[in-house]
Structures are given as C-alpha cells and as structure tokens.
Give the backbone structure.
Amino acid sequence: MVRIAFTNASARRLLFADADVEGQNFIAMLEQAPAPLRHALQVEDDALVALDGGDGASETFFVSKRVLHAEAARYVLVAVKPVTEPFARQEIATLKRIIRVIGHEVNNSLGPIASLMSSARLILWLAWPSTRSSEWYGPPATECVPRTRSRSTSTVG
C-alpha cells in the first residue's frame, strides 16, 4: 500500500481540493484523478498534462517523479507544476518572432520588385513622351534630368 507522507499547500489545493490527505492511500486517491493525470503519475517518465479547467479553459501541468531512499524506506517524490502561463508567454513570443521573420522576408521580396517598377516607370517616362500624359503611368517618382554645368566666362579687361 502506498501512503501519502507529506503534501504542501499547493499540492493539496491542486490535487486534493485542500483536503488533508497525509497518511491516506495514494493508489485509491489516484483512481479518482482525471485520466491524463492518472496516466502521467503511473508512467516512469516526466510528462506534460493538459486538464480542462472549470471555466472551459485548459490548464497544462508538468508532472515529475523521483525516487528517494531514506532511512531504509523508499519514497516517491511527485512534483506537479503549472506551466500554462509560461507556455502562453512563450507561444506569443514565438508568434511575434514568426511574424517579424515573415514580414522581413516579404519586404526582401518586394524591395527589388518595387525598385524595378520604379526604374521601368522612369524609362517609360523618358523614352516615350506620349506616356507622360497617360493617367496609368503618371509622373515618375524622381525626375531624371541631366545636370548641365554652367560655365561662367569672365572677361578680363
């Protein structure tokens, strides 16, 4: 028979509805636990468990078990840690990072296209004067007018 030797306040609140369970049969209490939690406590490996909350929201917990031998007795230490909020923060940070990378990649693709469009527009504007009055093309973004150097001639006299 497996007896509960010690619980802290958080464990009592989370697993046992604030009941004092020290000395009670853990296996019997385990039968009343939700199936995902019961499975996580029965396997040897650590596990993530998602449980439905009372308000319809799901809560995620990390379940870890370790064996401790002390004073010729064998104890199984069980730690259940809520991880819903850290996972939600990490998920939001990951989504922000994905959006930033996608935006960067789209801008990398659109930059050369916009540059080529601007160049083509300027070439059309300069090469075919008849397109200057067309509403479809409109004026180019920058005027390409060759600069002429003004030579000042001075007479010495």
User: Anything to note?
Assistant: The mean pLDDT is 77. Residues 84-127 form the longest helix (44 residues).
